[in-house]
Fold this sequence. Notes:
The protein is α+β, with helices and mostly antiparallel strands. The chain is 19% helix and 30% strand. It has a 9-stranded mixed beta sheet with strand order 2-1-19-18-14-3-12-13-17.
Amino acid sequence: MDLSQYDYSLPRELVAQQPALARDMSRLLVLNKGLVDDAFSSLPRYLSAGDVLVLNDSRVVMARLVARKKTGGKVEILIIRSDGISASCLLNGKKIRLGTVLEIGDFSAVVRGKDNGRFNLEFDKQVSEVIERYGEVALPHYIKQKADDPGRYQTVYSRVKGSIAAPTAGLHFTEEMLATIQDMGVEIAYVTLHIGPSTFLPLRDVGEHPSLEPEFYSISAENAEKINRGIQSDSLFTVGTTTVKALESANIGGAVKPGTGQSSLFIAPGYKFKTPIKGMITNFHLPKSSLLLLVSALFGRERVFNAYEHAVNHRYRFYSFGDAMLILR
């Protein structure tokens, strides 16, 4: 696959540094037979009674820690996964070697190993205790400003802790909008997929059998039943790429099965979808990212890139705190 076909130019000022004043005040680019510029607050009028809206209820863990070496040098720690006092992490700092001691407030950690760009740290206390005391929200690298309200990097329906990045398509929903949608007769179903680093790290090489780092997902029997009703009636709307990934990972023989698993699914143009999706709500994604490839696979590269060109020309705000798209099949 030629990743250059999934590249595009974006003026730096269009990368949103803060969320909209209110969640549903974001703009909404509707991609149907043509393109319509709308507001996210108008989303309910694109839904109908009997539709099924699927959301990812994963909650972001405060996985960023700021540490100091004994020499005084600053090191940023992003905890990918942890077990007891051990953690696999991404580190941002200079001259980090085996045995380097990192001090986080009154806690400390020692670098015990490095493998494929990940550092293995051993903490002097339970990692969960360190995060509870000093953890911060790990905003993406392209957001240079500190979040005025870290709670805006959580969806209003987030429940299950486990993601290191937010399922950003859901950030635009308010509790009032979800109530309105349900009152219309739209069913709301939830899946859980804990977002790992493969969601936001750039793709460097796509081999013959590509896969992404495994991410945990879970779908209850009650929610699988709702989703399958949406599949049978061809009325399924998904919110975000992670929701699509969870559904495809759990779909066996055309139906979504309840249960848990680890998904390393890589979806790119040419992929044969098992889950019929009537519409998808999504943000604008980084060039050459797995997320952009997934959206292109679902709705067609040319169609998606025409929408991106329109969004750039009409000064939409991009990425995690940016505006949204509703793409209809």
